[in-house]
Amino acid sequence: MSGMLGQRRLPPQVLFLLSLLLGLLAGTAAYRYASAENWLPAALWGAVAVWLVVDAVRALGWMKNGRQLPGQAGASPAAARPQPAPSQAFSSQASAPTPVSVDPAVTGAPVNPLLQEAPGNRKVQSTDQLD
To answer: Where is this region: Disordered (predicted)?
Structure first.
């Protein structure tokens, strides 16, 4: 199915109207189930309604800001990503990240006694071999 749609997406206006309409229908179903005291379907339909209304609000934000949807035809992925400044792109003074030590002697963390060697060269017996 994704091959059929390609890179096309719904315009924000259509997405807003569909999400709002379906959110209102799901909210109506949630209200009717809650009125009949069927709490599980009311909660499920209520969650769907909230999801759709939030999606409608996102689409409204896209409409107001004039942004295109991610992956919409004509959108340039290079224009969406901020480019680093030329002076910072190939800096010869790039600092390497400092290594993080997990050694308890360095970090001051308590040592787990279960991870240490058995005292006195004693061989630890597995519990599946016990009688």
So the answer is: 69-131
